[in-house]
Design brief:
Elements: E1 2-6, E2 9-13, H1 15-33, H2 37-50, H3 55-72, H4 83-110, H5 115-140, E3 158-161, E4 167-175, E5 180-186, H6 189-238, H7 242-245, H8 253-256, H9 292-296, H10 298-366, H11 370-382, E6 394-399, E7 404-411, E8 420-426, E9 431-436, H12 439-464, E10 472-483, E11 488-500, H13 501-505, H14 514-520, E12 524-525, E13 548-549, H15 569-585, E14 590-594, E15 604-608, E16 615-622, H16 630-643, E17 647-652, H17 658-664, E18 669-672, H18 674-683, H19 692-705
Parallel strand pairs: 7-10, 16-17, 17-18
Antiparallel strand pairs: 1-2, 3-4, 4-5, 6-7, 8-9, 10-11, 11-12, 13-14, 14-15, 15-16
Helix pairs in contact: 1-2, 2-3, 3-4, 4-5, 10-11, 12-14, 16-17
Length: 706
């Protein structure tokens, strides 16, 4: 497992998910730094397409979506004209916040102990509540439709002169809200001011009355708009099938091909340190300064010559030391660069290989390769547009022999669907009142919805199956809900139907009654689907691999004289299965051995139930007497990819070459050599030995006898 840290979140992820993070998560982080959150989300969606249960990707998507919302979270000033659009805008933000929480909930299902995810969820719930409060405020606040505010200042008359030169008192009154204007004049200042005050009071009363009428009208219009929204939400559910009938479900493969470049920057050669020039012995600095008396007194001359020699030798010694230090440092820089370059080249090769394999799926699909049918169908169902509160989670299984596709589909619960029928304005109370659907109407709406989802899913899969790879589809609808009798969440299959291609495509879905059509296809379900009564699926997705065979124990026959390297190859494979069964059983895991393969493909498969490190693990056993080369490790990696496993383990009685270890580095592969195998045996109470030289002689003798 590796750890990555981003936006205050730390994730423990598998080596395989680490590669996905390097390929898509790193570029997404750079885009997010630039404020391009939607593009970052698209890259994270690439991770979720390849690894739907990648909890770290769910958290990152929630994080980027939250930042996108926060970046755009602003509203215009509310007026009568824009109150509807502002409410829609607020509801859109609310749905996006809910989507963030849904993503975090999915991540918490995978790892319930993720404290940071829980804190993030709590953090998001605060702005979600604020948006809810804002929506309520829109619905209940009295909205003034004009900026006009009456002039509350003291009304005072001004002295003016008429054309004839007479003095008069005058007040100019104006009311912008009522669009009224008047001059009040008189000889008595007090009387003029009283008349003006009386007129102002009349206009203010008229304005207040007009406001009350308009406020009531605003609430009436708001009630009408909310009723319209509620009606549209119900109509959307009632027409789930019709929304899907005239769409083209055929995928444009060319547009889906990944032609992107490997985005990780290539390491640059280091700038090596320069070695300074050595000190020059002939330089004037190192020449002794011999004077007249030095030549006469020989000892003085010798002292100065020796002194100059010592200075040079000291400087030369320092230069040699500096030279060695620089050479050593340059070697370190070069080695670090070569290591980083090899790592980069390996990651680039792996990226291009995965890209090539993914792009080859498109071509393989048209050749009806069985391993491409499920990914193709997943793309179709992922692109299906449903209301935001639909789980849109599913699991698929395909049998290429019978050409039957099984779909386990997560359905919304009764609590998820809208229940508002209309909103009324009650004049006597001056408030908006929500009128819910009756319980009978909700149940009818829900039952009809479930039948529609089943039929629509089958319709979308058949319409998109351009190579006729599917002859029959089994749809199993599952609902997760709270069982109030026991206080725990339960997951129950409430509908199951099997539809053959010819029979289903002959149905005109635009004119059907969903329930009658479902029953006509011999679908199974309670008469009241809203009761969430569990039923047995017509066909279950099989978790059983037909390659699995019965196994037998070998370890009990071993002792410290038994040479594993000379063991029968089939016994060796069963020994490996037995050891790993003991290793995984302490965690509730299971290990099964496959049919005799003679070192081709999968020798055993482990199923680890741990939600973090677990999954399907491919195990291969190599009873070799020579060093295992890189080709065997490369084959194992290919098998891990083809099997959709989370990890591969290669066990040998010998050891691996440097190129094998180099290839396995950074991949979801574990290489166990002979020494590791003996340690694993001893851990589970068994002893044996590995003598490669003796094994070569024994096996050679057996081959001669054959």
């Amino acid at each position: 497992m590796s750890e990555i840290f981003e936006s205050k979140f730390t994730f423990s992820i598998s080596a395989e998910d680490k590669k996905l993070y390097d390929n898509y998560g790193d570029p997404a982080k750079e885009l997010a730094k630039e404020g391009n959150f939607l593009s970052a989300i698209k890259l994270i969606d690439e991770i979720l397409t390849e690894s739907p249960n990648a909890g770290f990707a769910l958290i990152l998507k929630a994080n980027y979506l939250f930042n996108h919302i926060n970046k755009n979270l602003k509203f215009d000033r509310i007026t009568q004209n824009n109150i509807g659009s502002i409410k829609k805008q607020a509801l859109n933000f609310k749905n996006q916040f809910k989507e963030c929480i849904n993503l975090i909930d999915k991540a918490l299902k995978i790892n319930p102990e993720n404290k940071e995810a829980k804190e993030f969820k709590n953090f998001i719930e605060n702005p979600l509540k604020e948006i809810d409060d804002f929506i309520k405020l829109i619905e209940t606040t009295k909205i003034k439709i004009s900026n006009y505010e009456p002039d509350k200042s003291v009304i005072e008359a001004k002295l003016i002169y008429t054309n004839r030169g007479y003095q008069m008192w005058e007040i100019e009154l104006r009311h912008d809200g009522l669009n009224k204007y008047r001059h009040i004049r008189g000889n008595d200042k007090y009387v003029v001011e009283q008349k003006a005050a009386a007129q102002q009071a009349i206009w203010d009363k008229m304005w207040q009355k007009k406001l009350e009428i308009e406020q009531k009208q605003s609430k009436i219009e708001l009630a009408i708009e909310q009723t319209k929204e509620a009606t549209e939400a119900i109509k959307e559910i009632e027409n789930i099938i019709k929304h899907a009938l005239n769409k083209n479900y055929k995928i444009d493969w060319e547009s889906l091909k990944n032609e992107s470049k490997f985005l990780k920057q290539k390491p640059q050669p280091p700038k090596l340190l320069d070695i300074p020039k050595p000190p020059n012995k002939n330089a004037p600095y190192y020449q002794p300064k011999i004077g007249f008396w030095d030549k006469i007194i020989l000892s003085r001359e010798q002292e100065k010559i020796a002194y100059a020699e010592n200075i040079f030798n000291s400087d030369y010694g320092s230069w040699l030391k500096t030279k060695e230090e620089i050479i050593s440092k340059n070697k370190e820089l070069e080695k670090q660069y070569q290591d980083e370059l090899r790592q980069w080249e390996a990651e680039e090769r792996e990226f291009l290989l995965m890209q090539k394999r993914k792009n080859e799926i498109y071509e393989q699909y048209f050749n009806k390769q069985p391993n491409t049918i499920i990914p193709y169908c997943k793309i179709i169902l992922s692109n299906s547009e449903y209301p935001h509160y639909f789980p849109q989670e599913f699991d698929l299984d395909y049998n290429p022999t019978t050409k039957i596709l099984i779909v386990d589909y997560s359905l919304p619960s009764v609590d998820d669907i809208p229940k508002l029928k209309e909103v009324k304005y009650v004049k006597s109370k001056d408030e908006l009142v929500e009128i819910p659907l009756s319980e009978a109407a909700i149940n009818k709406l829900y039952d009809n919805l479930i039948y529609q989802i089943a039929l629509r899913t089958i319709h979308e899969l058949y319409e998109s199956d351009v190579v006729n790879a599917i002859d029959s589809i089994v749809f199993n609808g599952w609902v997760e809900s709270l069982d109030k009798a026991i206080g725990h969440k339960t997951d129950a299959c409430i509908v199951s139907v099997q539809a053959n291609r010819h029979e289903f495509l002959s149905i005109n879905l635009s004119n059907i009654d969903p329930k009658l059509c479902f029953k006509n296809l011999k679908g199974v379900g309670s008469s009241k689907l809203h009761s969430l009564t569990p039923i047995a699926p017509i066909l279950n997705i099989s978790r059983e691999d037909k390659r699995f065979i019965s196994s037998y124990d070998v370890a009990g026959e071993l002792d410290d004289t038994y040479n594993l390297a000379a063991m029968d190859w089939e016994d060796f494979e069963h020994l490996i299965r037995e050891l790993f069964e003991k290793e995984f059983s302490q965690y509730g895991g299971e290990v099964k051995v496959t049919r005799a393969s003679r070192d081709h493909g999968v020798d055993a498969v482990a199923f680890d139930p741990d939600p973090i490190r677990g999954g399907k693990i491919v195990i291969q056993a190599k009873r070799y007497t020579n060093t295992v080369g890189v080709s065997a490790v490369r084959d194992l990696y290919g098998t891990v990819m083809n099997e959709g496993a989370t990890k591969g383990i290669l066990v040998t009685t010998a050891d691996y070459g440097p190129d094998a270890y180099e290839f396995a580095r950074g991949k979801p592969l574990t290489l166990l050599n002979g020494s590791n195998l003996l340690h694993l045996l001893e851990k589970h109470g068994h002893k044996a030995k590995i003598d490669l030289k003796a094994a070569k002689q024994i096996l050679s003798e057996k081959e001669r006898q054959l």
